[in-house]
TrEMBL record:
It is found in: Cell membrane. The chain crosses the membrane at residues 48-69, 89-112, 193-215, 276-296, 316-341. SMART domains: AAA. The lineage of its organism: Bacteria, Bacillati, Cyanobacteriota, Cyanophyceae, Oscillatoriophycideae. It comes from Gloeothece citriformis (strain PCC 7424) (Cyanothece sp. (strain PCC 7424)). CDD domains: ABCD_peroxisomal_ALDP (cd03223). InterPro entries: AAA+_ATPase, ABC1_TM_dom, ABC1_TM_sf, ABC_transporter-like_ATP-bd, ABC_transporter-like_CS, ABC_transporter_sub-D, P-loop_NTPase. Residues 53-336 form the ABC transmembrane type-1 domain. This is ABC transporter domain protein. It is a multi-pass membrane protein.
Length: 589
């Protein structure tokens, strides 16, 4: 069952709490402004403002036309009750023509507004994507518990943010304008009715406010649990084979159902307050019509107003109730909007912090030079709780290799993460070329979505290479028959599932030989291969004149490396001579 905090219906008012609420509101406005302003001051701002101005113009046109329609409505009902046929026909024709004009204004306004929404969404999504991929935020964000499901924030929350921003700002403006137009109509017929409309709307607002206190936190949870549920299903799809091997379906189904139950509990908890809110709003708007008749009837019977005035007053009265009750009727939608603003605002804050240079914390400095060297490097985990390697200094001779060995979990891959710039907590200097000149091959090479050609070309999938060249490089890594087997270079398959890990690792080396970089980082990238294949690939690597860092466990790798460092854990390490299989000279602290 949902165990989230539900606030008391009647809050205790205190200055401190009020200040906190004002601060919270300021924070929401700041988030909203931070996300919204980027498009409206961007290079596309001229088109954006022009379209917005057009929408506003058509709103004004539609609203004034609709007030005119109200006038003709009064006229023809009065003519009807007075049995004035000519007048009736005349005002009916005017009513019909005005209605057509109104409809065309509404269609044009909707068209322009939808276009504006799409342009804004296109721009903002690209903007978030740029910042998500810049500074490797997509990788760093995994360590941040507050930013759950960034994918949902980019794919859905942006759409919702734009839709609601336009809807609520324009809707509020439109409501105020309508209020002005209909206020004078109602005021001219019956003053008291204006006050009744305002009081009714205030009552509606109070009720909605108290129910909204329950709904707001539920709407926040709703968005998060919806995303968690979908992600749990994606996770099963991505790991389907491992789950099938472990016969983990029961466990996985339990996990997915657990996420769904969490979502359902929130949705159930929302039903009662939402229904009460809908009921109260509907009840009020229906009963106020009777109230309006009650107030108008004495004037009508005294002959002070016509029947047409009554017909005109009812929509004017309900409009005024709608105007003053705008917050009440929009309350639930606004709480959802607040949830979306918070999700996007915190995400934008995170992306901004990620782009800014690191603070005064001790970090590993990377200097771009055409060599691989470490100088007094200390590597810590991102949470800075553990020192994995301390004060490591070494330089890899050109066209040679260094091998990092050591027990599992000792910190070998973490040194590579520091070299790649993924981790920077620690101290010292790393000298390396630009990452564009280094090819990193992890233990499980990343298989992109797409054709076999794309797999081989990755990460430079736009490069033009002849089929013969691609086949040639596949032969170099002992994958000669792969193209024939899968049915061609342009076949698209789920490569992570259809190729064995050893084949994927050979494909990783095919990428390396194809792009022939000066530098390579190989993280247990031959661990799934037989010794003969491993030796073959390392021979080719040496022939290719590449300077490389390897991580591996097998002693058979030692002859291919000039330098061997054994990582001992807890910050300790030592150099091993390539002639000895197990260590001698202790060099580190
Ligand atoms: N994001 C992280 N935050 C904190 N600690 C982490 C993180 N990622 C890894 N670690 C820890 O850092 C330590 C070193 O991890 P690393 O991946 O470098 O080990 P390794 O020597 O390459 O192991 P293996 O041979 O098993 O691949 C491990 O104890 C691991 O649990």
């Amino acid at each position: 069952m949902f165990s989230g905090e539900i606030r008391p219906l009647f809050p205790n008012f205190s200055l401190k709490q009020t200040m906190e609420k004002i601060e919270k509101l300021r924070q929401f406005l700041r988030w909203f402004w931070q996300v919204a302003k980027r498009y409206w001051i961007s290079q596309e701002r001229f088109r954006a403002w022009q379209l917005l101005a057009a929408v506003v113009i058509f709103i004004i046109l539609a609203e004034t036309t609709s007030a005119l329609l109200n006038r003709y409505l009064g006229e023809f009902t009065t003519a009807l009750t007075n049995k004035e046929l000519d007048k009736f026909h005349h005002s009916l024709v005017l009513f019909g023509v005005t209605l057509l004009v109104l409809l065309s204004f509404l269609i044009i306004r909707s068209f322009i507004q939808n276009k504006l929404e799409l342009y804004w969404r296109e721009w903002l999504t690209k903007d978030f994507l740029n910042r998500y991929f810049a500074g490797r935020a997509f990788y760093q964000v995994n360590g941040n518990k507050e930013i759950d499901n960034p994918d949902q924030r980019i794919s859905e929350d942006i759409e919702s943010f734009i839709d609601k921003s336009l809807f609520y700002s324009l809707d509020l403006g439109e409501t105020i304008l309508r209020g002005f137009l209909f206020f004078s109509i109602l005021w001219s017929i019956n003053h008291k009715l204006v006050f009744v409309a305002i009081l009714t709307a205030l009552a509606q607002t109070l009720v909605s406010f108290f129910i909204g206190r329950i709904l707001t936190p539920l709407n926040f949870k709703n968005l998060q649990y919806q995303a968690d549920f979908r992600y749990s299903l994606v996770h099963v799809r991505n790991n389907s084979e491992s789950i099938a091997f472990y016969k983990g379906e029961e466990q996985e189904q339990g996990m997915v159902q657990g996420k769904f139950s969490q979502l359902l509990a929130v949705l159930h908890a929302k039903i009662l307050p939402s229904s009460v809110l809908v009921g109260i709003n509907a009840g009020l708007s229906l009963s106020v019509v009777i109230l309006a008749y009650l107030f108008l009837a004495p004037q009508y019977f005294a002959g002070q107003i016509t029947f047409g005035d009554i017909t005109r007053s009812i929509p004017a009265f309900t409009t005024i109730v709608g105007v003053f009750g705008w917050f009440a009727t929009s309350f639930e939608g606004l709480t959802l909007f607040a949830a979306v603003i918070k999700r996007l605002g915190t995400f934008a804050d995170y992306l901004q912090q990620n782009q800014q240079s690191p603070s005064s914390e001790s970090v590993i400095n990377t200097l771009i030079e055409p060599r691989f060297a470490l100088s007094h490097v200390t590597v810590k985990t991102p949470d800075q709780k553990r020192v994995l390697v301390e004060d490591l200094s070494t330089e890899i001779p050109k066209s040679e290799g260094i091998l990092l060995m050591g027990a599992s979990g000792s910190g070998k891959s973490s040194i590579l993460r520091a070299v790649a710039g993924l981790w920077d907590k620690g101290a010292g200097y790393i000298y390396r070329p630009n990452t564009a000149e280094i090819l990193f091959i992890p233990q499980r090479p990343y298989m992109v979505l797409g054709s076999l050609r794309n797999q081989i070309l990755y990460p430079h999938t736009n490069r033009q290479m002849s089929d013969t060249k691609l086949q040639d490089v596949l032969e170099q890594v002992n994958l000669t028959d792969l193209v024939d087997r899968v049915g061609g270079l342009d076949v698209e398959l789920n490569w992570a599932d259809v190729l064995s890990l050893g084949e994927q690792q050979r494909l990783g080396f095919a990428r390396l030989f194809l792009h022939n970089p000066h530098y390579a980082v190989l993280d247990e990238s031959t661990s799934a291969l037989d010794v003969a294949n491993e030796q073959h690939l390392y021979h080719k690597l040496r022939e290719a004149d590449i300077t490389y860092i390897s991580v591996g466990h097998r002693p058979t790798l030692i002859p291919f490396h000039q330098l061997i460092v054994e990582i001992l854990g807890h910050g300790k390490w030592r150099f091993l001579s390539p002639n000895e299989s197990q260590g001698t000279s202790l060099v580190s602290s």
